[in-house]
Amino acid sequence: KQEVTQIPAALSVPEGENLVLNCSFTDSAIYNLQWFRQDPGKGLTSLLLIQSSQREQTSGRLNASLDKSSGRSTLYIAASQPGDSATYLCAVSHQTGANNLFFGTGTRLTVIP
Amino acid sequence: ETGVTQSPTHLIKTRGQQVTLRCSSQSGHNTVSWYQQALGQGPQFIFQYYREEENGRGNFPPRFSGLQFPNYSSELNVNALELDDSALYLCASRGQLSTSGANVLTFGAGSRLTVL
Q1: What whole-number distance in Å separates Cα of residue B84 and Cα of residue B34?
Q2: Mean pLDDT score, A45-52
Q3: Residue B101 above 60 pLDDT?
Q4: Average pLDDT over residues A92-112
Q5: Which residues of A touch B109 (CB under 8 A)?
Q6: Alpha carbon of A103 to those of B16, B56, B74, B100: distances in Å?
Q7: CB B15 within 8 A of CB B7
Q8: How confident is the model at residue B31 (pLDDT cuts 50, 70, 90)?
């Protein structure tokens, strides 16, 4: 059974700092890994998707890496801003076309102005 | 604007009652899935529908059921509500795989259910 863990559970950083969020998964037979952002009481916004054959994806100030063999992914946020404050969730998928993602419990990020 | 809309946004029920939550997907999105997100937890997969048939279920009892309609809308029904059913219920849809093979789900904003 796939288990996804995210560390730390919560993180507070001053504005402008670079930061790294961690995600680990127990079953490395994944099809892809996705990072989401969730604002309080809201749905999920997809940030980055990494296919199992890829090592990283970048979008603006965000960079996600994937080490499938060790069951780890990181989300790097450069030059953090107060608007980055949210909960960040990682999720893995085991097959193409499947909507059943396995999510971690998230990291709650607060960027202090 | 995600293109996936859910209703109602909030509702309160009492234990033992039944609830129906609704989701409207983007045109052409023929797969829909439902997730339950308890407070402080990540979403958990309930089930998935493709062309109006259930084709995948997570670890949820039969009192959680669903329907998908030809107009890209769907429903989640929960019978005999329990206190632990209090959660944010998320609907997600996906269209045909892109040429890149990406498997990106589009999530709605959710329906927050409180069971008293």
Answers
A1: 17
A2: 91
A3: no
A4: 88
A5: 42-43
A6: 29, 17, 23, 23
A7: no
A8: confident
